[in-house]
Amino acid sequence: MASTLQMYRSMSKLPQGKRLFSIAFSQKAPYFASIHLRVDEMRPHFAQLTLPKRRSVQNHIGTVHAIAVCNGLEAAMGLLAEATTPAGHRWLPKGMEVSYLAKSDSDLVCTAETSEADWSAAPDVPVTVRATRRDGTVVVEGTIHLWVTPTR
User: Fold this and answer.
1) How close are the terminal C-alpha atoms of the chain, in Å?
2) Distance, CA of 82 to CA of 88 (rounded, Å)
3) 97, CA 20 to 30 Å: which among 36, 72, 126, 146?
């Protein structure tokens, strides 16, 4: 079976390919479908997606709900992990620390980033995550900790 990264690379070359990949990725972990994410970029050590501000993800004050933002950040981390985890290894999120810095009153761009040095510290791999508004304001930032181990 093709890896998630291989699927992204081949599908993103097609017309509407990123949209179709986003739908397929959301079905891999059905809870991700609840935020209607759009995958913008996926490569080793980096992933980016857009979380649209829709009524279904808003809270009582009309901003994107904090848990929806965390869902977007976890989805970005998952894309990064799928693209970066070495062959013969598996990953599992083991914790998330986030700070809420500003109101999420627009579509959000969720990013996840690591470095080679982060992965050399395996099995505990920290992934830096960030959500920004359209105007560039960081609304949430934090770290998701992965546990990366051999599959055998």
Assistant:
1) 19
2) 12
3) 36
What is the chain's length? 152
CATH code (residue 97): 3.10.129.10
- Read off the pLDDT of residues 84-138 as tens digits, 9 standing for 90 and up: 999 999 999 999 999 999 999 999 999 999 999 999 999 999 999 999 999 999 9
Neighbours of 111 (CB within 10 A): 21
- The HSE-up count of residue 107 (CA atoms within 13 Å, CB side) is 9
pTM value is: 0.94
Q: Which two tokens stand for residue 28?
A: 């891999």
In angstroms, the Cα distances linking 17 to 2, 13, 24, 74 are: 16, 6, 10, 22
Residue 1 has a pLDDT of 43
* Separation between Cα atoms, residue 133 and residue 139, nearest integer Å: 7
Where in the sequence is the domain holding 34, given as residue range(s)?
4-150
CA 18 from chain centre, in angstroms, equals 15
- Helix or strand (DSSP H, E) at 138: strand 138-150
Split into its structural domains, the chain has a count of 1
